[in-house]
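REQUEST ID: PR-0412
SUBMITTED BY: lab tech R.K.
PRIORITY: routine
TASK: structure prediction, single protein chain
INPUT:
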Amino acid sequence: MEGNSTVSSIAIDLRKSENHYFTNELKPITLSLIEFGAMKLKFSSPLKLYPQKDESGEYLIAEDDDYELFIFARDREELEKELHDEFALMWKVYVAEGDSKLTGRAAELRRKLLDNLVEERGISATG
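STATUS: complete
OUTPUT:
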């Protein structure tokens, strides 16, 4: 009987540890500053995303319809990095390149990015 109690307590400890892991993995992600290399984009009001597990339980998913985002990753750290990368890419494609070739949804997305993000520029040594 003594051996069974040890196995039970180990199983309970593992479940507690697993629950803590999933609780942390699924905590909301709040984006207020996007950093990508030298680029820094600041949200006028932080964007909150709610990660979910996919059907297999293998991946974390973050979605946002306003920005047409669907990002997945194996863990929270990778998911946050992918979000930063995606916003930097969207900024480069939809904002930095100008709007002369954008139509429909792309133009709307550009407007949302411009309305909600500001590029923070460093002060150069030359002025």
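NOTES: The mean pLDDT is 80.
REVIEWED BY: pending
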